[in-house]
Amino acid sequence: MQNRWREDEATQFIANYAGRWGQDLPLCTYASRLLGAEEALVLHGGGNTSVKGTYTNILGEQILAIYVKASGHDMAAIEPAGHPGLDLAHLRKLRALPELSDELMLQEFRAHLLDPRAPNPSLETLVHTFLPAKYIDHTHADAILALTNQVHGDELVKQALGDQVIVLEYVRPGFQLAKAAAAAFDRNPGAKAMVWLRHGLVTWGETARESYDAMIELVTRAEELLAKRAARPLVVKVSTPLATAQERLPRVAPILRGLLAQPSGNADQPHLRVILQPLVNREVLDFVDSDRGRAVALTPPLTSDHLIRTKAWPLWIDAPAYDDPERLREQISRAIQDYAAAYEAYVERHAARLPGSLTRFDSLPRVVLMPGLGAVSAGKDVAAATIARDITAHTLAVKAQVAAMGSYEGLPEAELFDMEYQSFQHAKLGSSGLPLSREVALVTGAAGAIGSAISQELLQQGCHVAVTDLPGENLDTLVNELRAAFGDRVLGVPLDVTDQNSVATAFRAVIEAWGGVDLIVANAGVAMVSSLAEMSLDSFRKLERVNVEGTRLVIAEAARHFRVQGTGGDIVLVSTKNVFAPGAKFGAYSATKAAAHQLARIASLELAEIGVRVNMVSPDAVFSHGSRRSGLWAEVGPDRMRARGLDEKGLEEYYRQRNLLKAKVTAEHVAKAVLFFATRQTPTTGATLPVDGGLPDATPR
């Protein structure tokens, strides 16, 4: 493992943060980021670091303080504030207690924070407190876990790391681990580090660099021993071509995603869906296609820290029938049912120890392994699914190393349960509280004024949104803007709605990214100004291809996908008031949008039986959304302004004055109308919601 410490970078951290935090904590922050950047050391909020120092209180008194990484914070991007400070002298007194529950321990932490607004400190805060060193680092290094999760793992650790490293049997994280670690150090005060079997590595020093250097040195030694002892690697029985696995994924993912959805008990929103993250690469394929892959995979996790993300065991599906979709669905369904029954039995075996403050997890798997495909991870959103995916990648790699060297030995079931249902761990999961956080939407024509507003509104409500439009700068800039605000919940997909292959390819891209689609917003459309007498047939056909054929192709692809996924869905067509109140010289647009509107109404009849609702929103003139101008009004506006002798502002005012409410209709208003249908506020399908301020002539009837 490479040592990435750079004195110039460390000095810069001090310069950046010393004014508020002094010098010690910025160096702890720097070391934390270096450790967090190494996925082979920690993943997604794992591990923790600390530094001891002093704090000046409001009376001007200096008190002993410890700054410990906050629970669940990601070390790769941590700031000094991510290490809440606590009263060190008080915490040290807790060692005299014979017992201390997690709940009472957290109360003590909260009561003795130096800033009551700070986040909860790590579960392992008392380890950092009871050990005397100034700087302490703790990781779940892959190489260390590969040694400790074996029969005679303690002997392997001593061979790799030497006698100056304490080896401690597994102790459940929390107060008891802190006392055990402190007692072990008292017996070996000259030790330079400590390994916790089936958990991780702890290093320390009087400087941040000393502790960091020890971490890198010891992990490197473990890696070297693993490389020397890899005598019996997994043997691939039938090597699946990577291209074959990648081709299977979009056929498997919607089936899997649909079967992993939980019943909600809400008739309007009957499914609690999941987001999928695939792990399809050469290494994982070789693992699942190997002679011992199944037996090795179905062992306990590398460390209890992973449990809340992956559960104790993955689901393995034997001999998937990729060429027979119905049989494949039956296989996956039966495997999920068996997994759920086994998980419920596991919880029942240990239910007497379930903390009263915690509710049971659902009984569905978080990780699914399939020979000939790879792995697929599931979560309540893309962040949770990504964490499960990344942990799975490292878990399989480490277990393959163990299999090549010896015999895997994980934690006993009771220990797994106690950590899976541990209050500190559950607190890391949180909840977005947003209505669409488990949903995936595909928006066509997203780069325009209305499409961008709809995409933004859906994202603000927690949705995962594929923004689609013709390839080019308009789409690219929108994707960049939205990703800056909403991160991995944004997917940019070039799409020409008039091209059936392009439509199918776009759906495939979303399925490969997130497992499926739940909401289609059919917004793409074009317009032109021409009287019927002067209109060329080619010009009319251009509108017909986009507005009618494009709508039909998108609805048809959505219908096929919804049937495979099996959890219903929603289609919202962005129609227009011109369907009900057409305008002169606007015949091509009015006629083709009316045809699209009618297609959506027919879809509401055809798709209701599979739980799909199809509705329409019918806006009047929308001129822009922020800096994004409406393409339709770029086409239509000049003619309307000439006809009425108005400039652009005057035209907007004209449209405002003509509705009953004298309201300016905005792209945000249209987005809210789409949201009404997307969140299923009422049991409605086949309906049209006007967004026009009240235009009597355009009232649907």
Summarize the model shown:
The chain contains 25 helices and 22 strands.
Strand order of the largest sheet: 3-2-1-4-7-6-5
CATH superfamily of the largest domain: Class II aldolase/adducin N-terminal domain
Low-confidence stretches: none
Distance between the termini: 71 Å
| Total beta strands | 22
Class from helix and strand fractions: alpha/beta
Describe, in plain words, how this protein is organized in 3D.
This protein is an alpha/beta fold. The protein has 3 domains: 223 residues, L-fuculose-1-phosphate Aldolase (3-Layer(aba) Sandwich), CATH 3.40.225.10; 186 residues, L-fuculose-1-phosphate Aldolase; 211 residues, Rossmann fold. Strand 18, helix 22 and strand 19 form a beta-alpha-beta unit. It is globular, with a radius of gyration of 30 Å. The termini are far apart. 50% of the residues are buried.
Write the layout of secondary structure elements.
Elements: H1 7-21, H2 24-36, E1 48-56, E2 62-68, E3 85-87, H3 88-93, H4 102-111, H5 125-130, E4 135-139, H6 142-148, H7 153-161, E5 165-168, H8 175-187, E6 193-196, E7 200-205, H9 208-229, H10 242-260, E8 262-263, E9 271-272, E10 275-279, H11 282-288, H12 293-297, H13 307-310, E11 315-316, H14 325-349, E12 367-370, E13 374-379, H15 382-405, H16 413-420, H17 423-427, E14 440-443, H18 449-460, E15 464-469, H19 473-486, E16 490-494, H20 500-514, E17 519-522, H21 537-565, E18 569-574, H22 587-607, E19 612-619, E20 624-625, E21 628-629, H23 631-644, H24 648-657, H25 667-678, E22 688-691
Parallel strand pairs: 5-6, 11-12, 14-15, 14-17, 15-16, 17-18, 18-19, 19-22
Antiparallel strand pairs: 1-2, 1-4, 2-3, 4-7, 6-7, 8-9, 10-13, 12-13, 20-21
Helix pairs in contact: 1-2, 6-9, 6-15, 7-9, 10-14, 10-20, 18-25, 20-21, 21-22
